[in-house]
Amino acid sequence: MSRPPRRPSEPTTETEDLLRRHAPQVLGALVRRYGHFDAAEDAVQEALLAAAGQWPEAGVPENPRGWLIKVASRRLTDVLRSEEARRLREERAAALTPRDAFTAPPPGADRAPSEDDTLTLLFLCCHPDLTQPARIALTLRAVGGLTTAEIARAHLMPEASMAQRISRAKQKVKGTSFGRPENWEERLPAVLHVLYLIFNEGYTATSGPALQRAELAGEAIRLTRTVHALLPGHCEVTGLLALMLLTDARRAARTGPHGELVPLDEQDRTLWDKAAIDEGVALVTRALARPQLGPYQLRAAIAAVHDEAASPDDTDWQEILGLYDILVRLVPGPVERLNRAVAVAMAHGPEAGLAELASLEGELSTGHRLDAVRAHLLERAGDTEAARTAYESAAAKTLSRPEQRYLRARAARLAP
């Protein structure tokens, strides 16, 4: 059966990718020229919608970025003029006149705003006054180019609630000068953490009917590539990009034909993305050659050991445990220690791993992961009744339906 023809106004994947790539650069140009981050961001979204409706039919202009800047500038100046008329304040008129330091390129012109505007916007979206959920939402909207509806769907939230979150975030950063902050190196870890959280939510959704949200993971990789292109010598940026690529390389094998979860040791490794693994290994090899080690480099190195193993039995758990020993000294968080406990169990036996879990009782008791790991180790140790109880407990705590089904299936398999 032939596929129905695409409607003229329906944007192609190529057009969507092009718009998403230019969105932060266009927003950066407008904010640098006019200020008014919140109004500029709305104007850019309108320009993106206009392009999505026109370009599939009329064709992509010779200079798409210049076209977007011109349309968005026109929308923004209309808004600013309306405000000027309402408020009768002469100083508002100054906002309508661009500073001489920057002139937006007309369609077809060669000149374009600096790619560095993407990184500047990331710093703005990860402002220290914003909460973590607000940083993530504003980053996806302003830098990722996603609509409010897309972000709300990705987070399983009502669109109105997400719109309020984004609006409050924009109000908080209102008046912040546009430019890379003087303490940008101190703020960079917050940017990387937001990108890491976006990727994790895409790779393993914390709630809902699907195990993965590929659009979020893909967006995190795209944005991290942009930061890496701007800061190629930064070890942790390189490590984060390598970690994402090495982890996402397994995505096709993580679910079965009905969306069910497939654990790492049962995955069909022929489905892993070899090109992504090769790129990730090359990146982490370069990053580890530097004298200073960071958490993302170490996590990427651990992922590389998994990805380079031809089978589960070929995995070098001693090397993984050694890397976790270094990681937990840098980041002694409960999740890192939980993952290290798994490595201890694989290297020295399930009883050794279970002993490691005792120190995590208070810190991870509310989530499902501690019970899930305990169940796995108890099953390996031969205590099937305790393992079944732990699997059931973990299933009751997770909000992810694929994880619930997987954990309940494991428990049912151990029933007398």
How would you briefly describe this protein structure?
Helix content is 67%, strand content 1%.
Structural overview:
The longest helix is centred in the first third of the chain and has 24 residues. Helix 2 crosses helix 3, helix 6 crosses helix 9 and helix 11 runs parallel beside helix 13. Among the domains are: 127 residues, no CATH class; 90 residues, Serine Threonine Protein Phosphatase 5, Tetratricopeptide repeat (Alpha Horseshoe), CATH 1.25.40. The protein contains 20 helices and 2 strands. With 416 residues, the chain is mostly helical. A two-stranded parallel ribbon has the order 1-2. 67% of the residues lie in helices and 1% in strands.
Output the structural class. mainly alpha
Number of strands: 2
Written as H for each helix and E for each strand, in order along the chain, the element string is HHHHHHHHHEHHHHHHHHHHEH
- Identify the overall geometry: elongated
End-to-end separation in angstroms reads 49 Å
Bin the strand percentage: under 5%
Task: Specify the helix fraction band.
Answer: 55-70%
Low-confidence stretches: 1-9, 88-113
| Strand order in the largest sheet | 1-2
Query: Roughly how many Å is the radius of gyration?
Result: 24 Å
Total of helices = 20
**Average pLDDT figure:** 85
For the sheet with most strands, the description reads:
2 strands, parallel
Organism: Streptomyces liliifuscus
Family: Belongs to the sigma-70 factor family. ECF subfamily.
Keywords: Sigma factor, Transcription, Transcription regulation
Protein name: RNA polymerase sigma factor
